Amino acid sequence: MAAELIRIYDENPAPKHINKVVEVLKKGGLIIYPTDTIYGLGCDITNVSALEKIAQIKNVKLEKSNFSFVCEDLSNLSDYVKQIDTATFKILKRCLPGPYTFILPGGNNLPNVFKKKKTVGIRVPDNNICRAIVNGLGNPIVSTSIRDDDEVLEYGTDPELIREKWNNLVDIVIDGGYGDNIPSTIIDLTTDEPEVIREGKGSVDIL
């Protein structure tokens, strides 16, 4: 089945379009959606068959995957992350929503497939479309970048070209305008001092 291309505007995402995307996710569908960095490939965090499809596409074992959890805000954190200290929380508050992925200690309530994970990557993108989808879904989406780490390609920023490449792999490609080619900055907050794992779009001066 060919992927459907849906135009959604970041300033004011149309509820009917968001609801359509949410319905597809609830049924185990895969979507490609805009973030504040590169377009992401995502599914419902609670749907194991969808998670397995993404792992297969990315050619990784699901239990060993390093997918990010995309949240609407910090209120879900306690569901997936162990108790964090005030200093760590202040960093998150300062940087999110924004182009960062924070590595945090995994909590006890992780979905079964992620139970063995010691750490999780948390994203709260500064993008109204993906936050509205997460809000409608009622839980995070598991996400991974659509690009391969060793290549920066034109198709990664143009929704029309993304659809051409991913047409038979996903159910919906959301056209939220041109994407970015710079990934999120990854910061590990699981040790005493914040450690920058990858410098991307988010400035590391905020630490």
TrEMBL record:
A Pfam family: Sua5_yciO_yrdC
PROSITE patterns documented for this protein: YRDC
An annotated Gene Ontology molecular function: L-threonylcarbamoyladenylate synthase
The organism's place on the tree of life at top rank: Bacteria
Keywords: Nucleotidyltransferase, Transferase
Enzyme class: transferase
Domain YrdC-like: 15-202
EC number(s) reported in the record: 2.7.7.87
Protein name per its UniProtKB record: L-threonylcarbamoyladenylate synthase
Organism from which the protein derives: Gramella jeungdoensis
